[in-house]
Automatic annotation (TrEMBL), chain A:
Pathway: Amino-acid biosynthesis; L-tryptophan biosynthesis; L-tryptophan from chorismate: step 5/5. Pfam families: Trp_syntA (PF00290). Tetramer of two alpha and two beta chains. The active site is at 45 (proton acceptor), 56 (proton acceptor). Its EC number is 4.2.1.20. It is an enzyme of class 4 (lyase). The gene is trpA. CDD domains: Tryptophan_synthase_alpha. Belongs to the TrpA family. The lineage of its organism: Bacteria, Pseudomonadati, Bacteroidota, Flavobacteriia, Flavobacteriales. The alpha subunit is responsible for the aldol cleavage of indoleglycerol phosphate to indole and glyceraldehyde 3-phosphate. It catalyses: (1S,2R)-1-C-(indol-3-yl)glycerol 3-phosphate + L-serine = D-glyceraldehyde 3-phosphate + L-tryptophan + H2O. This is Tryptophan synthase alpha chain. Keywords: Amino-acid biosynthesis, Aromatic amino acid biosynthesis, Lyase, Tryptophan biosynthesis.
Automatic annotation (TrEMBL), chain B:
PROSITE patterns: TRP_SYNTHASE_BETA (PS00168). Pathway: Amino-acid biosynthesis; L-tryptophan biosynthesis; L-tryptophan from chorismate: step 5/5; Amino-acid biosynthesis; L-tryptophan biosynthesis; L-tryptophan from chorismate: step 3/5. Keywords: Amino-acid biosynthesis, Aromatic amino acid biosynthesis, Isomerase, Lyase, Pyridoxal phosphate, Tryptophan biosynthesis. The beta subunit is responsible for the synthesis of L-tryptophan from indole and L-serine. Pfam families: PALP (PF00291), PRAI (PF00697). This is Multifunctional fusion protein. Its EC number is 5.3.1.24, 4.2.1.20. It comes from Hyunsoonleella aestuarii. The modification N6-(pyridoxal phosphate)lysine is found at residue 303.
Length: 254, 607
């Protein structure tokens, strides 16, 4: 069974952390993954940086630009991850925009992911219908789970469609926004979380965007299987470097 | 079936032929031929496979040439043995994995048994006519010999193929002999002298082979132009884009919409814009040049045709807040103008570099009540302004309409913008009829940033095969200089701003930063319609440098008393680069006026 599905069966609320590969330093990728696992993170999204990250706010834009300047490329990332499964056992997901994968060759990309022990992909600008028609069979051939986003504006009908095509979890974007920590959730979010919880979807939901601390993590996981932290973690690394990852993770889950 | 053009020799000719987007270009390194290649290969699209042709050459020499010219394939035209092929196939000193094409010559008969030993040591076979020379004999062999082809290896069909053989090729395609034929290889029949290809005959050949008349150059029902287009957007944008997709054609067809659109174009924009016969310019270049005067529109460019259309659309969709990106500031001004007209809030994203080089337009937008927000990321030009506008839309999904300013973005934008700009060619048709007695010119010409004035200028001529389409891109400091925006040459298929198109990018798929003196052409992609026109060879793409454009702008000012926008000057510069016949009628889209560029002209010419 795919590590993501296994993890989703555990009887606990899951914490998933996003970081930008190659940031702050080109060679931090592996040690960040190891540290996150050691400190109790359940799942990791490895951000493959892109020059034009349309769905990201300033924090991840800046870390992406810096990572590319540091020399991060698809090939470099794959190379860094070549022995990752010897030391890390939690699910690993690559999150990136479609163009770098398209240039690498979608099939070649998926094949490489499988070889390295990557469990899934999140590609915000690969639409569900294009995936469904053109790429689903390739992803499945290499045992990869593709994760789709939904937002407060996504219609029930489309959510059901996305649920039918997903086989891992659904990434619930907490509000209409690009990535970047906001301060707290209001009634609008709570209503949205409740509405989705009531839909009784086949796939569990994990909430992302705007989760930055213990409070927002608890609010989100009151309704969903887990939550994803991105910008807040990248900011932490920017401010405090990679030595105090334990402090960050502890502040969220303990 | 793919196309290989072999025997390329001359720098400019290589570029022109490459612009027709053949799948392979062949360079002959055999010295004993007038087509011997001995110069440099200019920068051409990476989609084109570069083939080196050798005859019984030393293996080390082949490796050296392959690496020096970054060849993708080698074609062996002599008596190379299977063992020799296997050495090349497994050589590790190549810059990349290369493909081996082994040539066999056929006259009326061929013993196919010889192929067997080559099955595992080459990637393709190529069948050529047996004659005195190792290739380039200029006549065909009897293709029915291939009925006996015993292999499943894909092969190239070669030998004396010319424009006259299109029907034969079509027949051949229906025959089982062609089952494994993957490409047609042409050479001597398309030359004006050995090594110099006749670009227009080659284009005609490509068009005829592809049945150009029946090809669709408009968007299809799925939002694609051939393989380009679509809507590659994050889920956050889906409801907005989908709402637009479901409604745009319906709304545009409403009589009440049409009435309001036409009325505003007439009374507010000042349409129809004149079609002006430029006599002195025509005399100078010895052809008949007409200028479609979009520069005389209110706000000084074609951009307002689209913003009028989109603001009416936005109102019918119940939107109250308008966002836009802008490069030269023309689209920003046109958007700010219609927002003032309709009393809607307006936010324009503009690259920091462009804010500096297009100051008058920034001031205009502010006077019109718009908020101008600098884009500070990346190259701080049009691409980055577009990113910011898209991010704004993600953050404001309900009340906001994004007025994209060119024929780019996710479907339905390229088509919607094209339809609003199509008024340009609609008018050219009747205006030319009045002046020349015919609706169709010999050529329509436009500069391409994202491609909206071009799309409008071509629209009603796309399916008129007697009208040549010329698309002019910005070469910046030169296509090979690293400072350029000539996407059709430098670009590869990829995804930018929600659509699949040609775009300038690294091998790793990172979008690269373009350069042009003109802010409106300084964009790393082209609209998907134009990518399709380029790929199919329907349009001829040319690239013009900063300096040639500036000179052409000055020339139009002196000869006709019209100061054009620098974007437009690129389109005008083709007359110095390309010949037209004396009685050719060439219509150029004069997309904008030069007021916004005065600073740049003054500085450039030290006026
Ligand atoms: C006068 C003028 N012409 C051409 C362009 C290029 O845009 P497009 O290719 O969409 O026509 C611009 C863009 O700003 C412009 O201002």
């Amino acid at each position: 069974m795919n590590r993501i599905n296994q993890k989703l069966q555990e009887d606990k609320k899951l914490l998933s952390i996003y970081f930008t590969a190659g940031y702050p330093n080109i060679d931090d990728t592996v040690s960040i993954i190891q540290d996150l696992e050691k400190n109790g993170v359940d799942m990791i999204e490895i951000g493959l940086p892109f020059s034009d990250p349309l769905a990201d706010g300033p924090t991840i834009q800046d870390s992406s630009t810096a990572a590319l300047k540091n020399g991060m490329t698809t090939e470099v990332l794959f190379d860094q991850l070549k022995d990752i499964r010897q030391s890390v056992s939690i699910p690993l997901i690559i999150m990136g925009y479609f163009n770098p994968m398209f240039q690498y060759g979608v099939e070649a990309f998926c094949k490489r992911c499988q070889e390295l022990g990557i469990d899934g992909l999140i590609i915000p600008d690969l639409p569900v219908d294009v995936y469904h028609k053109q790429y689903q069979s390739v992803f499945e051939k290499y045992g990869l789970i593709n994760v789709f986003l939904i937002t407060p504006q996504t219609s029930d009908e489309r959510i059901r469609y996305i649920d039918s095509i997903s086989n891992g979890f659904i990434y619930m974007v907490s509000s209409a926004s690009t990535t970047g920590a906001k301060s707290g959730f209001g009634d609008e979010q709570t209503e949205y979380f409740q509405r989705i919880a009531k839909m009784d979807l086949k796939n569990p939901q994990v909430i992302g965007f705007g989760i930055s601390n213990n409070e927002t993590f608890s609010q989100a996981t009151a309704y969903a299987k887990g939550a994803i932290i991105g910008s807040a973690f990248v900011k932490h690394v920017t401010n405090y470097g990679t030595d105090s990852i334990d402090k960050f993770v502890n502040s969220i889950i303990n | 079936m793919k196309l290989k053009v072999c025997g390329m020799k001359y720098h400019d000719n290589i570029k022109q032929v490459a612009a027709l987007r053949p799948d392979y270009l062949g360079f002959i390194f055999f010295e004993d031929t007038p087509r011997h290649f001995d110069t440099k290969i200019p920068e051409i699209s990476e989609d084109i496979n570069k083939v080196g042709v050798f005859v019984n050459e030393d293996v080390n020499k082949i490796i050296e040439k392959v690496n020096e010219f970054k060849l993708d394939s080698i074609q062996l035209h002599g008596e190379e043995s299977p063992y020799y092929c296997s050495i090349l196939k497994s050589a590790s000193r190549f810059h990349k994995a290369i493909e081996v094409i082994k040539v066999f010559s056929i006259k009326d008969k061929f013993n196919f048994e010889v192929l067997e030993a080559y099955e595992d040591v080459c990637d393709y076979f190529l069948f050529d006519t047996k004659g005195k020379l190792p290739g380039g004999n200029g006549y065909r062999f009897n293709w029915s010999v291939l009925n006996e082809y015993p292999s499943t290896k894909p092969f190239f069909l070669s030998g004396g193929i010319g424009l006259d053989h299109v029907e034969d090729i079509k027949l051949f395609k229906k025959n089982i002999a062609s089952k494994y034929c993957c490409a047609i290889d042409v050479n001597s029949k398309f030359e004006t002298e050995p090594g110099l290809k006749n670009v227009s005959i080659l284009r005609e050949f490509i068009n005829k082979l592809n049945n150009k008349k029946t090809m669709n150059y408009n968007v299809d029902e799925k939002g694609y132009y051939g393989e380009f287009g679509g809507a590659f957007i994050p889920e956050m944008l889906y409801p907005n884009v989908e709402e637009l997709r479901q409604n745009y054609l319906k709304i545009m067809a409403e009589p009440d919409f049409q009435k309001e659109f036409d009325q505003l174009l007439k009374d507010y924009v000042g349409r129809p814009s004149p079609l002006y016969y430029a006599k002195r310019l025509s005399d100078k270049y010895n052809t008949k040049i007409y200028l479609k005067r979009e520069d005389l529109n209110h706000t000084g460019a074609h951009k307002i045709n689209n913003t009028i259309g989109q603001i009416l659309m936005a109102k019918r969709l119940g939107k109250t807040r308008i966002i836009a990106e802008t490069g030269a500031g023309q689209h920003g001004v046109a958007t700010a103008t219609v927002c003032a007209l309709m009393g809607l809030e307006c936010i324009v994203y503009m690259g920091e570099i462009d804010i500096a080089r297009q100051a008058p337009n920034v001031a205009r937008m502010k006077m019109l009540g718009a908020k101008v927000v600098p884009a500070l990321s990346g190259s701080r030009t049009l691409k980055d302004a577009t990113n910011e506008a898209i991010r704004d839309w993600i953050n404001n999904p309900v009340n906001t309409h994004y007025i994209i300013g060119s024929a780019i973005g996710p479907h339905p934008y390229p088509d919607m913008v094209t339809r609003f700009q199509a008024i340009i060619s609609e008018e050219i048709k009747w205006q030319l009829k009045e002046q020349e007695g015919r609706e169709n010119p010999d050529y329509v010409v436009a500069c391409i940033g994202g491609g909206s004035n071009a799309a409008g200028t071509y629209y009603h001529y796309l399916h008129e095969p007697d009208v040549g389409i010329i698309a002019v891109e910005a070469a910046g400091l030169g296509v090979d200089s690293g400072e350029s925006a000539a996407t059709s040459v430098l670009g590869k298929e990829g995804i930018i701003h929600g659509c699949k198109t040609l775009l300038m990018q690294t091998n790793d798929g990172q979008i690269t930063e373009p350069y042009s003196i003109s802010a409106g052409l300084d964009y790393p992609g082209v609209g998907p319609m134009h990518a399709h026109l380029s790929k199919t060879g329907r349009a001829e793409f040319m690239s013009i440098t900063d300096s040639d454009a500036m000179e052409a702008g000055l020339e139009l000012s002196k000869l006709e008393g019209i100061i054009p926008a620098i974007e437009t000057s690129h389109a005008l510069a083709i007359f110095g680069q390309r010949e037209f016949k004396k009685d050719d009628v060439v219509v150029v889209s004069l997309s904008g006026r030069g007021d916004k560029d005065l600073e740049n002209y003054i500085e450039y010419f030290k006026i």
